[in-house]
Design a protein that fits this description.
Elements: E1 13-16, E2 19-22, E3 32-33, E4 37-46, E5 49-56, E6 62-68, H1 78-93, E7 103-109, E8 114-119, E9 122-126, H2 127-133, H3 140-156, E10 169-174, E11 177-182, H4 188-193, H5 210-213, H6 221-236, H7 249-268, H8 273-282, H9 294-305, H10 330-339
Antiparallel strand pairs: 1-2, 1-9, 3-4, 4-5, 5-6, 6-8, 7-8, 9-10, 10-11
Length: 341
């Protein structure tokens, strides 16, 4: 896989904060943002703003830049929204790990009257598409290790991702082989204030059962469960689950059970016994019997695949929900609590 072949019929995909776009189009090329960034391409638009490929005017360094849009009906809450976004951005910026996308600057363009932030500009493929193009299982243990290493780092910093799925695992090519980047650390206050529909759609298949049944006991194990389901889907070629609204507790529980049985049926069809055994440990329905941490999962990975991946430092985490760094996906957590009433 090559990264710099935009002239080819099928160019590399580019991931920018929740948007997966082909590298076409030169919208507003040459415009300068905050006297620092020159727009190269307009990559996508969403409820939260516009996303651009930019280069720094001083050195030509490639970045992704997202302009933050505040809806007109939320202008009266502007200061609160931006204040919360800044606080969350500071936490996200403090994360430095080779397997996690980085964010760099939170700024304000006076001419446009808009805030923005910058992050890595990545060329490559999401995990689903990468496996489609590289069906061999030879990279399985290495890619899984990198995912677990990144998750361990997040969990050690008292952050649960909450949205691990194929689209949020990105693979770029390096001289040393494929490199994993964990993506989509949405600024939840912007999402919440934009009043996006928080009914459970699409990602239901990847959510651990306890996410709905007992959210007060949410732990990092839910990310491990989501990783297990992700590995099932990409290795079985399972497409995204069709979006369905589930607005009542009964319908959600029914959907959870149906999705679980569906995923376990896929897993039962795996021919590679090692991969099947490893994924089974991640996807135990009962969190009490599920593998307990990313560290433990790496130890199990080494044992099953006879590898010798480095064991990251162990950190003791007491409480996610009472920790001030528990800011990502808090809107989802609140919504789930409301659904259970």
């Amino acid at each position: 896989m090559t990264q710099d072949t935009p002239e080819q019929p099928e160019p590399a995909y580019i991931y920018i904060d929740g948007f997966l776009k082909k590298g076409y189009g030169l919208l507003e090329k040459g415009n300068i943002i905050d006297s620092i960034y020159r727009i190269e391409k307009h990559l996508g638009s969403g409820a939260q703003g516009d996303i651009y490929h930019v280069k720094t005017t001083a050195s030509g360094f490639d970045l992704a830049l997202k302009m933050i849009n505040i809806p007109d009906d939320q202008k009266d809450k502007f200061e609160d929204i931006i204040g919360s976004v800044k606080e969350e951005f500071t936490i996200i910026k403090s994360l430095h790990h080779k397997n996690i996308i980085s964010v760099y600057e939170f700024g304000y363009d006076r001419k446009l009257g808009k805030y923005y932030y910058t992050m890595d500009y990545l060329k490559g493929f999401d995990l689903r598409r990468y496996v489609e193009k590289n069906p061999s299982s030879s990279y399985f243990s290495d890619i899984v290790y990198q995912m677990l290493d990144g998750l361990n780092y997040l969990h050690s910093n008292n952050i649960i991702h909450f949205d691990i799925k194929p689209e949020n695992i990105f693979i770029i090519s390096t001289d040393g082989g494929p490199q994993v980047k964990i993506l989509d650390f949405g600024l939840s206050e912007v999402k919440k204030q934009n009043k996006q529909n928080l009914n459970v759609k699409g990602s239901l298949s990847y959510l651990a059962p306890e996410f709905f049944l007992n959210p007060e006991k949410i732990s990092s194990k839910i990310d491990l469960y989501s990783l297990g389901i992700t590995l099932i889907h990409v290795n079985k070629g399972v497409a995204d689950t069709e979006s369905t609204d589930h607005t009542g507790k009964g319908s959600i529980i029914k959907a959870i059970n149906e999705e679980y049985e569906r995923n376990m049926e896929f897993l039962s069809e795996f021919r590679d016994k090692k991969i099947k055994a490893f994924i089974s440990q991640l996807t135990e329905k009962n969190p009490g019997t599920r593998i307990s941490s990313a560290i433990e999962a790496i130890i199990s990975l080494n044992r099953i695949f006879n590898t010798d991946f480095k064991i990251p430092a162990v950190h003791h985490i007491t409480s996610f929900l009472n920790n001030p760094k528990f800011v990502l996906r808090d809107d989802i957590y609140d919504h789930i609590k409301a659904l259970r009433k």
